[in-house]
């Protein structure tokens, strides 16, 4: 596994564990020589992860639409910055470059990227592993909702395996590498 796309919040959230564990994930990326592919911002958990990887001599590729350069405050210190025209192009490029996906805590944008990636896996557009970094049980309510959707007959039980989950950065990467 060479590259992992990470979806993450453009804010750091209100619990110190979000940033602390994101930094630890960055160290694990660098230690395992896995390149980060992400949205290209220097703010929030996106920036925390990129900075951690760069501080440990890892590689980071940011992908951002031109019109978001000011709003998301583009990270100009990344190894490679790819400028695209639209959010659709950003997501397509991130997916094209990635061998796997991780979702860190985040808001609507993170949820949208996560669910689009899961939907693509469900219909066979890709077979790349996907995992949630469940810091402070951030994603536990979402996992419960997914289980509820399975019980209600809206998601096939076999598709539950499309989303892995871990609370430890090394275990998270180990699971993805094993699946990839």
From TrEMBL:
It holds the Pfam family Lysine_decarbox. It is an enzyme of class 3 (hydrolase). Keywords: Cytokinin biosynthesis, Hydrolase. InterPro entries: LOG, LOG_fam. The keyword Hydrolase applies. It comes from the Bacteria. Its EC number is 3.2.2.n1. Gene3D superfamilies: 3.40.50.450. Belongs to the LOG family. This is Cytokinin riboside 5'-monophosphate phosphoribohydrolase.
